[in-house]
Structure prediction request, 233 residues.
Amino acid sequence: MADQSRGNGVAHLDDERLVFELPPLPYGEKDLEPILSAETLKIHHGKHHARYVETLNRLLTEQNFSAHSLEDIVRIARGCGAQGVFNNAAQAWNHSFFWESMAPKVSKPSGALAAVVASEFGSLEGFRQRFCAEGAGHFGSGWVWLIAKRDKLEVISTHDAGTPILDEGVTPLLACDVWEHAYYIDYRQDRAGWLTSWSNLLANWHFAEAQYDAALGRGQSWHYPAPKKAHEG
Ligand SMILES: [Fe+2]
Prediction:
């Protein structure tokens, strides 16, 4: 049971240090080429994402807190103002969700999700225009999201490590990274080009459909892999 009395007043599990791992990419590093290069994926996943996970684990040890899920860490850190933990935990989560939001094979929404995309945005192309405009207009680093508020859809953006996962009644369906490190090797400064390519060719609508089902109460939404006990390696 979580002991709320130690560390920074946040959950600490007695004598059990848990560490988060960097999940592997759900596809090979070359599988998104030529839209996204193996060089970008190797650096983005193996350096940037890995660094967030490493820093998170260090901060959790230094600040003496832990929890059984990354989602709980994000929630606890935001609640108690542990900004460093929040930033690294949320970035670890956002990046894994981003990898799941892409697929090597072009897909389109179908079924209930296709119907709601058409009703909310006019068409799939209407969604793409809205998504790209949100990302291109987003000042600085951050993320563009397609989210469900129960059965309704919205396109939003968040700054830096911002994430919608803790917002009441919100289920993310897709995320695109608009930090420069996500696209600079392949698209240089052309964020709009990155977003256009992403929304036309990389967006994983099969994943979005599973998330939408979860938003409607059918099944579980995606979760970051559970942490392991430190001594398990
Ligand atoms: Fe990133």
